[in-house]
Structure formats: structure tokens, C-alpha cells
Specification:
Number of helices: 11
Strand content: 25-35%
Largest sheet: 8 strands, parallel, barrel
Number of strands: 12
CATH topology: TIM Barrel
Order of helices and strands: EEEHEHHEHEHHEEEHEHEHEHH
Low-confidence stretches: none
Distance between the termini: 10 Å
Shape: globular
CATH architecture: Alpha-Beta Barrel
CATH superfamily: Aldolase class I
């Protein structure tokens, strides 16, 4: 399992949102470069960076800063937020980002995203689908989690036939930033239906056992944010658990 320590950027600062709500922000520090360097010093080989301003605005806002971070520190960066065009993808990859996360468009414009995968390669694109529970269904949340898709999660995934996409990041919005544990039932069902996808667990990871649980149901990666920032465990401990 790959551990992805997370940096959510807003106005150039490291923050976390509660349930993806932009009016529920916790500020942690104003030095993302130092934070990223600390992740690397702790042994992390990947980091997950989100341009929250871009996600909210629907356009790239902090991609230049993310590119600077990716080239300044010897760590592979997966990033997204505000990715809306092939030029956004190309600029991030050219700037040194290893993998670009595509959110809303992965659901609303699969034809466009499939073309990007064909151009840049499946290992350079991560599909990010954020979901909200709706009865017994999971419905993707779009545009910074302000809108609901007109299809459910499974229909959205069916638009990416086996052999096209490779990486999938799924966030249960109801658990994001809440430290309530990941949605293991959801992760298990995704892995059962789409074992071809390298699944990244996101939302709710609060303790080391959550990493073990996510791995046990098929997750190959885990995004960790608030639990690290609030000292529930360290990056070193997370990496050791992922290797165990």
C-alpha cells in the first residue's frame, strides 16, 4: 500500500476542510514546502496535493505553486483541483507532477478524460470520484462537492472499460476530515466490482488500524490528512503499517 500524506492548499497555506465544506476550514501552517519536505524526510515517496482554490473556482489557481513544490523536493506528487483542460494536465506534468488527479470531469466528461489517458498514459492520470450516500446508492459529488451527478458511482465507473484507466481515488464526502474511519464496505465493493483499478482510499482515516482495514479490502493506497496534522500517528508509523 502506498501512503499519500496530503496537503490541501488554500491561499498558499496548508488547510483541511470538514466534509469538503469551504466554510469549515482548519488552518495548519503557511509553509507547504516545509511540510512536504518533512513528509519526504519521514520516508514518504508520494504526496497528494490539492488546489482547493482551483476546486472551488473551477479553474487552475495554484498549479504554479504545486509545480514549484514538485520540483523542489525529491518526492513524487499526485495533485488535482481545478483541472479542466488538456492544457492543465500537460502543464502540471511538464512542471514535474507525477500524476494528475481529475475530479468532476471524470464523471461528467469521461470521453474527454479517456482521451487524456490515451495521450498521457494511464499511470499519469488518477480518476477522483467523491461520493455522497443517497439511500442505498452512492452518487458522485461534482464542482467542489456543490452539485450531485445524474448517475451513480457504478455507472460512472462503467464508462471506463477495463484496460483504460488505472488509478482510482474515492472519497466518501461524509467522512472526509471527520476522523471517523474509512468506508470499508464501499472500498470492498469497489474492489470487488473493479479489481483492475488501483484503488486509493480517502476520507476518514484516523488511526493506523484504518490503514490495515483499507488494505484488507483491496485498497492499494491511502490519502492521509488530518490524522497526521493532529498527531494521531506519524508518517513513519503509517509507512511501517503499510509495509507490514
Amino acid at each position: 500500500m502506498i501512503v499519500y500524506p496530503a496537503i490541501d492548499l488554500r491561499d498558499g497555506q496548508c488547510v483541511r476542510l470538514m466534509h469538503g465544506m469551504f466554510d469549515q476550514v482548519t488552518h495548519y501552517d503557511d509553509a507547504p514546502a516545509k511540510r512536504l519536505a518533512a513528509f519526504r524526510a519521514a520516508g514518504a515517496t508520494w504526496a497528494h496535493i490539492v488546489d482547493l482554490d482551483g476546486a472551488e473556482a473551477g479553474r487552475a489557481v495554484q498549479h504554479a505553486l504545486i509545480g514549484e513544490l514538485a520540483t523542489a523536493i525529491d518526492i513524487r506528487v499526485q495533485c488535482g483541483g481545478g483541472v479542466r483542460s488538456v492544457d492543465d494536465v500537460a502543464r502540471l506534468l511538464d512542471a514535474g507532477v507525477s500524476r494528475v488527479v481529475v475530479g468532476s470531469l471524470a464523471v461528467s466528461r469521461p470521453d474527454k478524460v479517456l482521451a487524456w489517458i490515451a495521450r498521457f498514459g494511464a499511470d499519469r492520470i488518477t480518476l477522483a470520484i467523491d461520493v455522497k450516500a443517497d439511500g442505498d446508492r452512492y452518487v458522485p459529488a461534482l464542482k467542489g462537492w456543490t452539485e450531485a451527478a445524474d448517475v451513480d458511482l457504478w455507472t460512472a465507473l462503467d464508462r471506463y472499460p477495463v484496460g483504460t484507466a488505472k488509478h482510482l481515488l474515492v472519497t466518501d464526502v461524509g467522512r472526509d476530515g471527520a476522523l471517523t474511519g474509512p468506508n470499508l464496505d464501499l472500498l470492498a465493493e469497489i474492489h470487488l466490482r473493479r479489481p483492475d483499478l488501483w484503488l486509493q482510499a480517502s476520507g476518514g482515516i484516523a488511526e493506523l488500524n484504518d490503514l490495515t482495514g483499507a488494505r484488507s479490502v483491496g485498497a492499494s493506497g491511502a490519502i492521509i490528512g488530518r490524522a497526521l496534522y493532529e498527531g494521531r500517528f506519524t508518517v513513519e508509523q503509517a509507512l511501517e503499517t503499510a509495509r507490514a
